[in-house]
User: Fold this.
Amino acid sequence: MKLHGSIRENLAAAVRSARRLRGQPVHADTLKYWDDLLHHARGELASGTGERQLIEPLVAELETEIAGRLS
Assistant:
């Protein structure tokens, strides 16, 4: 996955987008990007990144936003 900026910046942008788009349809490519971003972030967390405290809450927020769309 090619990111523009840090994983933290990409996660924060995805969370902002997900919140802004609550209750609206979201393109399948956007959902796939969010899922890929979460997968990448989990890999970073597993590798013991120094940004763990910054990344972990954003991962949880994005997971919650995506789960809300699937229920």
In short: The chain has one domain: 7-70.
